[in-house]
Design goal:
single chain; mainly alpha; Rossmann fold; 3-stranded parallel β-sheet; 3 strands; 44% helix; 4% strand; globular
């Protein structure tokens, strides 16, 4: 395995996986404090989420859903910042404590962009597809000039139950039909 992935990346992924699991335990052990928010952790999803988060670049876009703490950690968001959002603190980098927990939005030049999230399962699929369409349009019109290896991709994350939603099917169809990034 270390022939494919440098040890440095494997160590970072393992550290972040342990961090995500520790956060899950903190949330569960302090339900009397954290239960004022509906929060489901990334428990059991850490590996795949970190695989996604560690590959995202600052030119990319992502629409995570409420169980994507590990993706955020992989992108470089700190556990401290996740806790700031959980406790609605003014230093929360997503909304200064003004939005529902696990509904991040981020417009920071050093991170992938995150649009504001809906609480309804799967609702992020259509707006995320729209972002991909916009990126593709700009590329076709030669309105963007990304260097090799910096061309943005768009990621939409949701749980398996969202697959049954009509808007998710519509988003899949459009993304496939238009070969969106």
């Amino acid at each position: 395995m270390s022939d494919i992935f440098p040890k440095k990346i494997l160590k970072k992924a393992y550290f972040l996986m342990c961090t995500a699991r520790a956060l899950s335990h903190i949330y569960e052990d302090n339900k009397e404090i954290t239960s004022k928010y509906v929060h489901a952790t990334s428990k059991g999803h850490e590996a795949i989420q970190l695989a996604v988060g560690l590959q995202l670049c600052k030119n990319d876009w992502i629409s995570p859903y409420y169980r994507d703490d590990s993706i955020l950690l992989g992108m470089g968001v700190t556990a401290y910042n996740l806790l700031l959002q959980l406790m609605c603190k003014k230093d929360d980098p997503f909304s200064a404590g003004r939005t529902y927990y696990s509904h991040p939005s981020l417009n920071d030049d050093n991170f992938p962009k995150i649009i504001h999230q809906s609480s309804a399962t799967g609702m992020q699929a259509i707006p995320t597809t729209g972002i991909a369409m916009g990126i593709q349009f700009k590329e076709k019109q030669k309105l963007s000039n990304y260097k090799k290896g910096q061309k943005p991709i768009v990621v939409c994350s949701f749980g398996d139950a969202a697959i049954t939603e009509g808007e998710v099917s519509e988003a899949f169809q459009m993304a496939s039909l238009k070969k969106l990034p």
